[in-house]
Amino acid sequence: MKKWSIVASTVMIAVAGGIFFFKTYQQNVIIEDTYSYLQEQGYGELIEKEEITTYPRVSIDEDGDPRFSGGYFSFVTFEDEPLVEYVFGYKEEKKQITMIDFRQKSSEPPLKEF
What is the average pLDDT score of the chain? Predict the structure, then answer.
């Protein structure tokens, strides 16, 4: 009995670690892609990579509840526009990063389906 509980615990820890690793990997990829995109567009001097934040991509279900829909958005605030956040994400058909929207800076994550 002890053997099975040890095996079950090990499997649960491995699965939880894998999920955490995959989410962290997704966040790091969108941060890297956003930073590279901004450098290509000539905005690299206005932002540090460490200042790019991420929020989960969510959609609203039929009950009005937010649901994680896979992936992340990145948010960038430039030094010369401290009250505006620019939202970047992947266009599904292009698989490349692009600016999606901008908004007044807020502490609440967006609930916009992309």
Answer: 82
